[in-house]
Design a protein that fits this description.
The chain is mainly alpha-helical and about 210 residues long. It is about 70% helix and about 0% strand. Helix 5 runs antiparallel to helix 6 and helix 5 crosses helix 7. The longest helix has 30 residues. The chain starts with 5 loop residues before the first helix and ends with a helix. It is a multi-pass membrane protein. InterPro entries: Metallopeptidase_M50B, Peptidase_M50, Rip2-like.
Length: about 210
């Protein structure tokens, strides 16, 4: 049975919006840099959550801790080097999430130097909790999206490195991957796989700043 803590949900929402929006924006921006204007024409070259948030996916991650944003569409035929550039676009989203985790840890560290006379303890703790949730959410997105299971970024990276995208079997693997990923999530296998690396990365990063 799910335990809905309204305060916890509200403190998590900023991290979800930031993580999803910056993740998808990174895909879009790198695609444009590499020669594909498809994301630009579809209005995805923005940090506005309205352009990237899928209402159902957002609701699901808030309630069930699993959700999704609107995937950025690209046309690899516009890339100069299709194989290499597709991998770079796929890497952009997770790398952005890792960057955001570090960035918000820096903000948290800087915030500790704010004089106590300028802010109440309760407000300070609430702000730090929002920042901490944002760090955690971005690490989750970083690790989860690197899983080599379609349609996640990790699968695009792996299939690109193995040069499987040009093979007839790719479509079969991609279709089966969606079912496999859903079964992994329902059975909580995904959580068991990504939980340890998420905890390790979070612990290592926090240890660098605090």
């Amino acid at each position: 049975m799910m335990n809905f803590d309204i305060r916890d949900i509200l403190l998590t929402i900023p991290g979800i919006l930031i993580g999803f929006s910056f993740h998808e924006y990174a895909h879009a921006q790198v695609a444009v840099w590499l020669g594909d204007d498809t994301p630009k024409h579809q209005g995805r070259l923005t940090l506005s959550p309205m352009a990237h948030i899928d209402p159902i996916g957002f609701l699901m991650i808030v309630i069930a801790r699993f959700g999704w944003a609107k995937p950025v569409e690209v046309n690899p035929f516009n890339f100069k080097n299709r194989r290499r550039d597709d991998i770079l676009v796929s890497l952009a989203g997770p790398v952005m999430n890792l960057f955001l985790a570090v960035f918000f840890l820096l903000i948290m560290k800087a915030f500790t130097f704010v004089p106590s006379s300028m802010i109440s303890d309760s407000l300070f703790n609430t702000i730090m909790e929002v920042f901490d949730n944002t760090v955690w959410m971005n690490i989750v997105l970083f690790v989860f999206n690197l899983l080599p299971v379609p349609p996640l970024d990790g699968s695009h990276i792996l299939f690109g490195l193995l040069n499987l995208k040009e093979k007839p079997i790719y479509d079969q693997i991609h279709s089966a991957g969606r079912i496999i990923l859903m079964m992994m999530i329902i059975s909580r296998t995904t959580g068991n796989i990504i939980g340890p690396p998420i905890g390790m990365i979070y612990g290592q990063l926090v240890g660098m700043f605090f």
